[in-house]
Design goal:
The complex is a heterodimer of chains A (383) and B (617).
Chain A lengths: L16 H30 L4 H22 L9 H14 L6 E4 L2 E5 L8 H18 L5 H21 L3 H17 L4 H20 L2 H11 L10 H13 L24 H34 L3 H25 L17 H17 L5 H9 L5
Antiparallel strand pairs in A: 1-2
Chain B lengths: L1 H40 L1 H12 E6 L6 E2 L11 E13 L7 H15 L3 H10 L6 E7 L1 H9 L7 E11 L6 H4 L2 E3 L2 H7 L9 E3 L2 H5 L1 H4 L4 E7 L5 E8 L6 E4 L3 H10 L5 E7 L4 E8 L4 H4 L5 H9 L8 H4 L9 H10 L9 E3 L2 E4 L5 E4 L5 E3 L1 H7 L2 H11 L1 H10 L21 H8 L5 H8 L9 H12 L3 E3 L4 E5 L6 E4 L4 E4 L4 H17 L13 E8 L10 E9 L9 E7 L5 H18 L5 H7 L2
Classes of the chains: A mainly alpha (383), B alpha+beta (617).
Chain lengths: 383, 617
């Protein structure tokens, strides 16, 4: 693949239009699908089939405004805020466990606040971690060992705190994104490999000592064996895929969302899309996330400095990795982990944090030029 | 320095980016393959697999409704004609058994333990969908269940389940009234599947069991058992609780039925006792009979087959399913036809020399069994003088006789609530011409006027005829079920009201004349056996010549039709019709049975005003 594909040759200060459109398309599909998936449930629970549609539209409006604002704010300003962000992250993660402020649902404490304003801190912590890591790894000052040790400790702490909620999916998501940023930042492989080796026993403990996680892995390996217990959801998801076929049964006509699929409007929305819009729908969604990753790489390549480069890469990875985990779980290529599909799933925190990420990415895309200099360097012309 | 590091970083970044892009491309490509695989390729198998292995439905049989006699009183210990008792069935689902070899081995061991025919079971299994539940043996003793349960490893996938066995407490006595249940046949299953019938269920095959099957059967419940691929139980829950069937209270009085049954014990024929004022059947006996208890099990199919091919036809309910020449009992219709058409008056006498000669192209003699001398209509009925009725029939003419027979509904079904009723046969001129290519002769009229020749009637039809006489021309639909109750008897769901089926405009004087003749028959005629009863009865005997090819002791059928009390309130009247196949004569064979029935009715207080009040609706 020609590297030119990843180079924005425009010189203007316009934000990346393709990226912007991809985000809007996904969010639009998300609103439509989370309505289709939740209408019956909403009618039953709240007496209003538009309940989730209304809420999601409000969240989208808020997120969209935030994105437009952040598009105008120079990303380099975040460099000074990372310490506050870290502190804020740990406070938020701790608040989840404080009775009265944090509250839990379905056996895990993931939320703070109450009612319409309850937030899922881990979504924002993820964002803060990406900004923090981009800053740390883009700096060329100081000792390499120290430069990697501190972030490793911080990421581990965040990882453990989220695991305590417990929210295995988001924890793994943060870990994966962190490793990817480390990888892209140019650290020697030896560091990455040693870190992986060190973490293997920890994973063994985390997964194999907790029975339900072990079962999840087993259910992932053979869902049919566990289809009345832990594998039930994934089998229902498979059935949704099958029912969908090539073009789906039509929007709103799906049957799997009616009490068979767990969280049809959040974590399993991809299965609802599979049933109602078929292979065409699922491929389009996957393709849109690929577009986001692609534009993320383009923005990253064009960024003026290392921080912008890593930040753009990290934020687009944050979206893409989460999307891949979600789609992978629903399609049965990854073990069950309850994380939403970015922009598409119902959920304010997720939509908001992803919109913020998109806003920052759009801002970075307005400062192009570095890659050209780099290309020129190769041609022997100094800046 | 600054820029060289920058260059180096960029260089690394670019390499890593290439690597990273390849990884994510592979990851998304894998996802894409899985999507295509799920949605287009593998899906069908998943769906089939999901349907097959997900759940097993194990039926919980509903208790079938009990049947009581008319003396049922709420809150007391009542006579149960039919009840049910819990039992066990041994079943299997052949598809669960791993191999055919294992199936044969298991069936082989079981067939010896349960004493069932191994080949029969194996051929039945072959004909069924392998996922269908097969009942190997019904009503298995508890000891046997214990044996199988204790050695389950020897009987893989052999289940036992609750079942309920119908108990016919009076064995043969009610066999034709209540009928019996049996395994649902393929045709019945096909027809009744939409109503929720299942292939493993029992269904009423005849009598009340068939007529009221939908009420009696209730609704089976089921246990939903969630199983894994190896059919191991993972969880179980009651999907639906069974709903017990409704109970029935009959109009039949156990004591009268018993009396009639005992009186008919060694005979062949039919007996019916009815209250004409309401249409309630008090007793209904058909002989020969069968014991329903012996044939309800699917393992006794050979007994059913034997009964079905028996020349005596024990399954036939002779009261409603058999036609006989009515013989002298038909003389009453001839009399009514002649009186109603005003071709005769009862007081006019004829001389009976014991023979009647029909004048014509060629004279033909018709004989009487005796020379009765000069008789008027009353004495002609009482002594059953055929010569009198030969002439009366010719006077009335065949059309009038046929019309009145039809008016009494003798060629129609009465609509009794027992299935399989047939209608009687009354000839017509057109029929005769069609069947024989001959016109209707006077000889045919002469024959018909004494109930011989072409006319063939059912006992239930004759019963309705007598009811019409007693009720001044009104006939109520005969029925055997009095009320429908909930399974715990706490509530009456439906109480039947009498239903008028015939209203024949008849001159009261005509009826008086016929009744008087019937009374005279009891006091000093052929029904003399009933003359000693405390209750004044009225009746008519009949002896039909039959053209049976088979060698029987007597080649004639004996009839008695009658009622009691002779003159009393219509509410208290009870009609009895007796038919004895190949009996000696109406007077000798049938009348004594009626006598015993009337005696018992009187003893039970049916004719007293108190008895009427308590025993009527």
């Amino acid at each position: 693949m020609d590297l030119k594909f990843f180079i924005d040759t425009r010189r203007s200060k316009e934000p990346d239009l393709i990226f912007f459109l991809a985000i809007l398309t996904l969010a639009g599909i998300g609103i439509a699908m989370s309505y289709s998936a939740s209408a019956v449930f909403a009618m039953k629970e709240f007496g209003d089939s538009y309940y989730f549609l209304k809420k999601q539209s409000l969240w989208f409006a808020a997120g969209f405004m935030l994105m437009l604002v952040l598009k105008e704010i120079d990303y380099r300003g975040y460099l000074k805020l990372t310490k506050i962000m870290l502190v804020f992250s740990f406070v938020l993660l701790a608040l989840v466990f404080v009775p009265g402020i944090g509250h839990s649902a379905k056996g895990s404490a993931r939320w703070v606040g109450a009612g319409a304003l309850s937030l899922q801190p881990s979504e924002f912590v993820k964002l803060f971690m990406v900004i923090y890591l981009a800053k740390v790894f883009s700096s060329d000052k100081g000792d390499r060992f120290v430069q990697i040790l501190v972030p490793v400790l911080i990421v581990s702490a965040v990882f453990l705190m989220i695991m305590l909620q417990p929210d295995f999916g988001t924890a793994m998501d943060i870990l994966a994104v962190s490793v990817f940023i480390l990888f892209v930042s140019g650290f020697p492989f030896i560091y990455i490999i040693s870190l992986s080796i060190i973490s293997i026993p920890m994973f063994y403990l985390l997964i194999y000592l907790v029975e339900y996680r072990r079962e999840r892995i087993l259910a992932f390996l053979d869902p049919w064996e566990f289809r009345y217990g832990i594998g039930y959801h994934i089998i229902q998801s498979f059935i949704a895929f099958k029912k969908g076929g090539l073009f789906g049964v039509g929007l709103g006509n799906g049957a799997q969302k009616l009490s068979r699929l767990p969280e049809p409007h959040t974590d399993f929305i991809y299965a609802v899309i599979a049933e109602e819009a078929g292979l065409a729908g699922t491929v389009i969604i996957a393709f849109l996330f690929l577009v986001i990753l692609w534009r993320g790489i383009v923005i990253s390549s064009g960024a003026q400095d290392n921080f912008g480069r890593l930040l753009a890469m990290g934020l687009s990875l944050m979206i893409a990795v989460q999307a891949f985990i979600n789609m992978g779980v629903v399609a049965g290529v990854l073990p069950t982990a309850g994380i939403p599909l970015p922009f598409v799933s119902y959920g304010g925190s997720s939509l908001l944090s992803n919109m913020i990420a998109a806003g920052i990415l759009l801002n970075i895309s307005r400062y192009r030029g570095a890659m050209h200099q780099e290309v020129n360097l190769h041609e022997g012309v100094l800046e | 320095m600054q820029s060289s590091l920058k260059v180096k970083l960029l260089e690394v970044f670019r390499l890593r980016m290439y690597f990273f892009m390849s990884v994510s491309a592979v990851a998304f490509f894998l996802l894409l393959i899985q999507l295509v695989n799920l949605q287009l390729v593998q899906g069908r198998e998943y769906q089939i697999k999901a349907l097959r292995n997900r759940e097993n439905y194990i039926p919980i049989p509903a208790a079938r409704g009990d049947i009581y006699d008319r003396n049922f009183t709420e809150g007391e210990k009542n006579v149960m004609i039919v009840s049910s008792r819990p039992s066990f069935n041994i079943t299997t689902i052949p598809a669960k058994i791993k191999s055919e070899k294992e199936l044969i081995t298991v069936i082989d061991i079981l067939s010896r333990l349960l004493k069932i025919d191994k080949d029969e079971v194996l051929s039945e299994i072959k004909n069924l969908n392998p996922w269908d539940r097969v009942v190997l043996k019904e009503d298995v003793e508890f000891d046997t269940i214990v044996k199988i349960a204790a050695h389950q490893e020897r009987f893989p996938n052999i289940d036992w389940e609750d079942a309920s066995v119908r108990v016919y407490n009076s064995s043969e006595m009610f066999s034709h009234v209540v009928g019996y249940v049996g395994n649902i046949s393929f045709d019945e299953y096909k027809r009744l599947k939409p109503e929720g019938y299942r292939h493993y269920q029992k269904i009423g095959k005849s009598g009340i069991e068939k007529q009221y099957d939908r009420l009696l059967r209730g609704r089976d419940g089921y246990v939903r058992r969630i199983v894994d691929v190896h059919q191991r139980t993972e969880g179980e829950e009651i999907g639906m609780r069974p709903q017990a069937g409704d109970n029935l209270v009959l109009t039949i009085d156990y004591n009268i039925q018993n009396t009639a049954y005992e009186a008919m014990k060694d005979l062949k024929g039919a007996a019916i006792v009815i209250k004409p004022y309401t249409g309630e059947v008090l007793a209904m006996v058909s002989k020969p009979d069968f014991d329903p208890n012996l044939i309800i099990s699917k393992n006794n199919i050979s007994i059913v087959k034997k009964l079905q091919t028996d020349a005596e036809r024990p399954f036939l309910n002779r009261v409603i399913q058999s036609r006989y020449p009515p013989a002298s009992t038909f003389k009453l219709i001839t009399a009514i036809a002649a009186l109603e058409t005003e071709r005769a008056v009862p007081e006019k006498s004829y001389y009976c020399p014991g023979k009647f000669t029909l004048k014509g192209y060629k004279d033909h003699d018709f004989y009487d069994y005796d020379a009765h001398g000069t008789v008027d209509m009353y004495w002609a009925i009482a002594k059953s003088c055929s010569v009198y009725f030969y002439q009366l029939g010719l006077l009335a003419g065949p059309s009038a006789i046929m019309r009145y027979a039809e008016d009494f509904g003798l060629n129609r079904r009465s609509g009794i609530d027992i299935p399989g009723e047939v209608e009687g046969f009354i000839p017509s001129r057109q029929w005769k011409y069609k069947a024989f290519g001959q016109p209707w002769f006077d000889g045919d009229t002469v024959n018909m006027s004494i109930g011989q020749g072409f006319v063939h009637l059912t006992p239930i039809g004759m019963c309705n005829f007598v009811s019409a006489i007693v009720n001044n021309g009104i006939v109520y639909r005969p029925r055997v079920v009095r009320e429908i109750r909930t399974n715990d008897n706490s509530r009456v769901i439906k109480s039947f009201r009498r239903e008028r089926i015939l209203e024949i405009p008849l001159n009261l004087l005509t009826l008086e004349a016929v009744k008087k003749g019937m009374r005279l028959s009891v006091t000093s005629g052929t029904s003399g056996r009933l003359g000693y009863l405390k209750v004044p009865a009225a009746g008519k005997t009949g002896t039909a010549q039959t053209r049976s090819i088979r060698q029987e002791k007597y080649s004639q059928h004996a009839w008695f039709i009658g009622y009691a009390p002779y003159e009393g309130p219509p509410e208290s009247a009870v009609v009895t019709v007796i038919l004895v196949e190949y009996g000696v004569a109406g007077a000798a064979s049938a009348a004594p049975i009626a006598e015993r029935i009337f005696y018992k009715l009187n003893e039970l207080g049916y004719f007293t005003s108190a008895g009427v009040a308590s025993k009527s609706l």
